[in-house]
Each structure stands twice: as structure tokens, then as C-alpha cells.
Description:
Blueprint: E1 2-6, H1 23-33, E2 37-39, H2 46-53, E3 56-58, E4 61-63, E5 78-80, E6 82-86, E7 92-96, H3 100-111, H4 129-138, E8 142-145, H5 155-158, H6 162-166, E9 175-177, H7 184-187, E10 197-199, E11 216-220, H8 226-234, E12 240-246, E13 258-259, H9 268-273, E14 284-285, H10 288-295, E15 309-311, H11 315-323, H12 330-343, H13 346-352, H14 355-360, H15 362-365, H16 369-379, E16 383-386, E17 395-398, H17 401-409, E18 416-417, E19 426-428
Parallel strand pairs: 1-2, 2-5, 9-10, 12-15
Antiparallel strand pairs: 1-11, 3-4, 6-7, 7-8, 11-12, 13-14, 16-17, 16-18, 17-19
Helix pairs in contact: 11-12, 11-16
Amino acid sequence: MxxxxxxxxxxxxxxxxxPRMDLPTLAKEGTRKGIHLLGTGDCLHPKWLKGIxxxxxxxxxxxxxxxxxxxxxxxSTDFVLTVEVEDMRRVHHLLILPAIAKAEELYxxxxxxxxxxxxxxxxxxxxxxxxxxxxxxxxxxxIGPCHAFTPWTALYAYHNSLQECYGDMVGYVxxxxxxxxxxxxxxxxxxELRELTFLTNSDAHSPYPIRLARxxxxxxxxxxxxxxxxxxxxxxxxxxxxxxxxxxxxxxxxNESACIRCYKHYPLTEAIIRKWRCDCGGLIKKxxxxxxxxxxxxxxxxxxxxxxxxxxxxxAMIIGLALHKSTTSKAVNTVWxxxxxxxxxxxxxLVDAPMDDFHTNTANFNLDARVIEAIxxxxxxxxxxxxxxxGKYGSxxxxxxxxxxxxxxxxxxxxxxxxxxxxxxxxxxxxx
Length: 432
């Protein structure tokens, strides 16, 4: 069977998160999105873990039921225990746990090294990456670095290799989370990563469809269980990832080197000459693309086991681009709801439903032809991305004959092809 999984999110017990990041809302919105398995996030937080315990558990997976508790599911979105922790170098690590008892065990072992484990869903630990990996191994948890390339709180922000971070435990690391500013074509240029599984997760702080599962993974498994998920991540017994889905890397807010104050972009050589100071006096933050180029030590060809990477744009953004409307407008929401009523989930609309179904059922869904053409062109990769940097997201520009002619005349703007298209317009992730 095939499952869609977003394994890195946060509860309302983490800083800067929506109060709607509760289990019932996540289950509901995950189902509408088309996600079969969500990481719980924050599973070491005592109050969040207490709520998880109220769900029905089977083989390390947690789910809601109806009145006949334990017999039938109310929702197709289930949960697996996950938590993000910060080490003493500020590197973030994602742990995927097999059972409540193991979460409680980790809480006890980590609590002596943390001052905020009871107050923050993403606790800071006075431990190295190697020591955290040792604790993960003892708890039979999977571990890997979160958003590995971002210039803050990431492995390659503070280390030049996995070995530097994880020491003698490097062999226990089973995955690398790429983050919004990188994809497989970036990470596979680094030799030490080529045999690891790449995860693409949303790191969502709100349950809205423009945040939740904006990046997700598709796995081939026999059933939904922790053991099957572990086998898929480790690529054993025929279980494996079959698709990574994420935003175009240039859209990430740290893709290019840029000033964190005025957001002016700089080539790496110029930033070095300037000693990483902008004309405005602000700090120039090294971008993911430049950091990957520094670390790259092999060709960009993918290893045989690497699945395709699909550049996904949230459906509301595609509709907004097609209609020249804000992604939060009533008009966009009406179309979004209509598409879900017809196709079931956002993932079906963006990835799985045959395009013929859109044209056949246009009248039934009351769809604007521009929206259908936008979805079609999205699937064909017709989009331009003006790169982000310095903490500001990149922007999406739809390809049209007029816009292409105009862009050819412009100078000094770097664009990267990703996926998605409508009639015209430009939106940033900040518009979400």
C-alpha cells in the first residue's frame, strides 16, 4: 500500500504555533489534505503526551475512533510519535518513536539535561548530537537532522559533516530532512548523504492547508505501523519511499545568500569580500545554495534508490495565481472547497487525479477554466521562482507569453523552474 506522511509538525505547546494545533484539528485537516500519517510532534511534552494517550494505539500508530471505540476509524489520518529537539550547538534533530513507553523513557533521560522540556514542545538539551543519538538508539527511535541546510539551527550551519555532529553514532542516523530551501538535487551532491533516505516534511506551526503537509513523503508499505514506517525509511524488505514532495528550493527563505535586514542578494564571492556585511550594515546570511556548493564533492546524479522529487505548491496558491486573488480570499477558498468536494483531497487534486476528470466535470465543480489550466500547467512544471534569501521567502511567477517576453528583457534576476502555473501574477509564501 501507499501512504502519504508528514512526519515533522508541532503542537500548540511549541513556541510560535497556532492554538489550533490540537489532535482533532490535525486529524481533520490532515484528511482533507490527503495525508495518511502525521507525526505528532512534541511527544515529550507531558500535556501533549497525555492527549496522545487518549487515542487508540495499534502497532505504534495512534488514531481516533467513533462510538465503537477500537473497531472503526473516523478519519484516515493517523499519528506516529515524533519530537524535534535542539542540541547544545543549536542543531535540531527529529526523532521518530515506537511507543508511549519509549517517549516516557526519553523524557526521563532528557529531563536532567533540559530546563524547558516541561514548557516547550521542542526542548533544548545540554547534549551533543552524538549523545542525543545514543539516547535515541536506547529508546529504539529513529533519528536524523532537521532542515539540514538552513543557516540557523541546522547540521550544516554548524558542522561540515555528519561525522562532526554525530561522532561514533553517525552510523545510526537513518535519514536527513532536507528543509524548504533544498531538494534531492542539492543534497545528492554531497557524498555522505547519498545512501541516506531524504525526508520532506512541513515543520508546520499551523493546521491550515497552506502550511500542513506543504512538504510530505510517499512511502510503499505493507500496512500503517511503526515497524513498516521504519522499514520504509531504512529501505528494507521492499519497503521504501517512492516520492518526495516539497516546495521549489528557490522559494525557501534562505535559498540564496542575502542580507537579513534589507534582503539584498549577494554572490558568494562578493559576500566573502564584504566580510558578510551589507551596504546597509546588516548581516549577509549564507544561503543554502552556496552552502551546498561549498560541501559538494560528487556529481548531481541521483543514486538508484532515490525516488522522484515533485515540486509542490499549495493548492490555494495555485488558485490565487490563476484568479489574481489572495490565497486567504473568499473566492480562493470557495474554489478550494469545491475541488475537495469533487476530488476528496488536496493531494488528489495536485498529484493523482487524471486531468481529463477536471475537464469532464468542469460544470459539476463550477470551476473557472483558468484554475484548470493552472493545475495542468503546475503538473507540467511551468513556473518561475524568484529566489528567497536572508529570511524572506522567494516568490512565484506564472509563465505566460507576456511574462516570458518581459522576463527576457529584465537583467539581474535569477529564476529557477519548479512547478505550478496559472494565467499571470506573482505571489510570495508571505502572502499565505
